[in-house]
Amino acid sequence: SIDAPIRLSTTSPVELEMTTAADGLPCKTDWETLAVSEGRALLRLRIHTGRQHQIRVHMAAIGTPLVGDKLYGPDREIFLRSAAGEMTDFDREQLVIERHALHSHRLVFTSPTSGERVTILSELPDDLSEAFPAFVGAD
User: Fold this and answer.
1) Distance of CA 97 to CAs 67, 73, 100, Å?
2) Which of 106, 92, 108, 12 lies closest to 60, judged by CA?
3) Rounded to whole angstroms, what are the CA distances from 59 to 20, 30, 43, 45, 102?
4) Around Cβ 82, how many Cβ atoms within 10 Å?
5) How far apart are the first and last CA of the chain?
6) pTM of the model
7) 109 three-state secondary structure
8) Cα dihedral: 90, 94, 98, 99 (round 10)
9) 3-class SS shares of the chain: helix, strand, coil, % to 5
10) Which of 32, 81, 91, 117 is most buried by a 10 A CB count?
């Protein structure tokens, strides 16, 4: 489990960047490794709170940023270059894919109208399946 409060960063040049901080709002994420291939891992995450950028901030905070994350990934400058339309081939190489490798495979909630438990499943999208073929079918 990662139990680390999150708040807006006061030092980042990116206005929407969040950070873990003792004076942030309570925030908890449980995680489990499902598969590992080529130095990358497929994780199952369960968020208990739902803060802005929670998964991305928590994973970066423990040294495992999401593949493709321009802001919390290998170098915040990639985000700034991307926003300016100036990403380099080296930036793209570091990211592996040009979006967060984040996918909600299973969403479970209680229906506010019926009170029944609802489960929605969604298979891995094509771009992630192509980028990470070893993880296809793993859940």
Assistant:
1) 7, 12, 8
2) 12
3) 11, 10, 10, 10, 11
4) 17
5) 19
6) 0.89
7) strand
8) -150
9) 20, 25, 50
10) 91
What is the distance of C-alpha 52 from the center of its chain? 11
* Residue type, position 14, single letter: V
pLDDT digits (tens, 9 = 90+) for 47-91: 999 999 999 999 999 999 999 999 999 899 999 999 999 999 999
CB atoms within 10 A of CB 79: 21
Q: Report the candidate in 56, 77, 58, 76 with the shortest Cα–Cα distance to residue 67.
A: 56
Sign of CA dihedral 32, 50, 137, 127: negative
DSSP character string of 20-81: E-TTSB--EEEEEEEEEETTEEEEEEEESS--TTHHHHHHHHTT-PPTT-TTTSS-THHHHH
pLDDT digits (tens, 9 = 90+) for 79-109: 999 999 999 999 999 999 989 999 998 999 9
d(CA 56, CA 50): 11
CA distances from 121 to 46, 107, 128 (A): 15, 7, 16
